[in-house]
Amino acid sequence: MSGLSLSLKTFAAVALAALIQLTGLTGAARALDAAPLVNTGWLHDNLEDEDLLVLDIRSPLAKSGKEDYLKGHIPGAVWSEYPGYWRTSRGDVTGVLPSIEKLEASLSELGVHEDRTVVLVPAGTSDLDFGAAARIYWTFKYLGHDKVSILNGGYAAWISAGHAVETGEIVPEGDMFVAEPRPELLVSTDEVASLVGGNALLLDSRPQTQFDGLEKHDDATRFGHLPGATHFDQAQFYDRATNTLKSKDQLKTLAAEVAASSSDPVIAYCNTGHWAATNWFVLTELLGYENVAVYDDSMVGWSRQSDLPMISAKTATN
Q1: Residue 311: strand pairing partners
Q2: 52 pairs with which residues across the strands?
Q3: Half-sphere exposure for 166 (CA within 13 Å, toward CB)
Q4: Beta-carbon contacts of residue 239 (< 8 Å; ≥ 6 apart)
Q5: Is the separation of the CB atoms in 273 and 296 below 8 Å?
Q6: Whole-prediction pTM value?
Q7: N-term to C-term CA, the chain
Q8: 276, 201 in Cβ contact below 8 A?
Q9: Is the separation of the CB atoms in 269 and 226 below 8 Å?
Q10: pLDDT tens across 191-217, in order?
């Protein structure tokens, strides 16, 4: 019997080793492997993972907010107001990044830590709404947190897939988030001014009418665009019929029309760095462009410095 017992033990050990190799399990829990853009099936399958944090960011941009969150949300999801603590004003410039210290405090309250994967859930109703998720995603990346994803199609896709929801508020369990900023993802007005006329692609992410100087953001003081800028409305990456991003092949084709090389420097800008974040997200996170940054102050900040040039077909100014 001792030989039989030893054989069984050996078989069990071999089987366990095979299972570990197959599943990737070790003494620690399996790390979540999340793409920058995840679908509802992936989120449903991983919803019970203790290292997953779902942030519901439905906001006034989608004619939604906390009231809708309380009526129904993805199980376990925490509500995070947008723009809320994700944006602030500095002087006359609106919508810019808060200080690193304030962001660290806010993310700590949400329960973010270095091993936690965050999935951002917009409403899933428009490209403007998706931009909120892209902006928050970029903020996480700027702060040095790589474990972040966006739910493609947002809350609307979750409902359409027939997945369960829950009501009421989930109170987050705080943790300690320490930022490791990546300054290369963010450029200042002075830095952009030094790039005008150079080799960098200045990518204007706004609607055509704003690029042409026929309309402007309420907080901008002048009409027009940066000298030498290339126009690409971020909405072109978005499929309004499905309220998701377009297929990767479609994104590649569209991106190639404005940025032929994936290694050339690109500065994405808009009015306050919201639409620009979508262009940054698609180019960098989905298509692998290597040198893309967001101009946070964008046209609101640029237009307020009267010594900086702007190109416009409209002669009237405010």
Answers
A1: 225
A2: 117
A3: 10
A4: 245, 246
A5: yes
A6: 0.89
A7: 94
A8: no
A9: yes
A10: 999 999 999 999 999 999 999 999 999
Instruction: List the one residue out of 143, 136, 138 whose CA is nearest residue 120.
Output: 136
DSSP assignments along 75-140, one per residue:
TTPEE--SSGGG-EEETTEEEE---HHHHHHHHHHHT--TT-EEEEE--SS-HHHHHHHHHHHHHH
In angstroms, the CA 122 to CA 57 distance is 5
The residue among 74, 119, 68, 126 whose CA lies nearest residue 242 is 126
Close Cβ partners of 314 (under 8 Å, ≥ 6 residues apart): 212, 213, 214, 223, 224
Report the alpha-carbon distance of residue 109 to residue 103 in Å, rounded: 10
Helical H runs in the chain? 2-23, 40-46, 66-71, 100-110, 127-142, 154-160, 189-195, 208-211, 248-256, 275-280, 298-303
Of the candidates 246, 258, 241, 227, the residue with the CA atom closest to the CA atom of residue 286: 246
Residue-wise pLDDT tens digits, 21-34 = 443 333 334 568 89
Residue whose tokens read 């329960």: 111
**Between the CA of residue 89 and those of 58, 84, 86, 194, 296, what are the distances in Å?**
21, 11, 11, 24, 11
CB 64 within 8 A of CB 123: yes
Structure tokens at 69: 């969150």
Q: Which of 205-214, 229-238, 250-259 has the lowest mean pLDDT?
A: 250-259
The answer to whether 258 touches 203, Cβ cutoff 8 Å, is yes
Tell me the C-alpha distance between 237 and 252, whole Å: 10
* Total residues belonging to the chain: 318
pLDDT at 105 over 70: yes
CA 158, 162, 167, 173 torsion-angle sign: negative
